[in-house]
Write a structure and sequence with these properties.
Length: 106
């Protein structure tokens, strides 16, 4: 699972076209719109000023940090780049590491 460091061709922000960086998708959507960090934050009206290199930011409610930006979660493609793994339950560690290794911005 996710043994490659390649980024699928269709892995780009639907709003600004950013590629080669972390993308987020709407939670529990069959055909999700993928957004880059800045577009997801703007869409959700969220502060991302403290996001770290792993894509983690301070939670709005409760202690700790999260990869979520409002209703957007990490967009981690399956091995074929045709669908996205269900967050957070079914994401293998190697797939999460693939996403975290991507830069936050292009």
């Amino acid at each position: 699972m996710m043994l490659t460091t390649e980024v699928p061709d269709n892995y780009k922000c639907a709003n600004c076209g950013a590629t080669g960086c972390k993308l987020w998708r709407e939670y529990q959507r069959f055909s999700p719109q993928l957004l880059c960090l800045d577009c997801a934050a703007a869409d959700q009206g969220k502060d991302i000023s403290d996001i770290d290199e792993n894509g983690m930011r301070t939670r709005e409610s409760g202690p700790g940090r999260t990869e979520q930006i409002g209703w957007y979660v990490p967009a981690i493609p399956n091995d074929f780049g045709t669908r996205y793994l269900e967050y957070p339950d079914n994401i293998p560690i190697i797939a999460m590491e693939w996403w975290r290794a991507l830069p936050n911005r292009p």
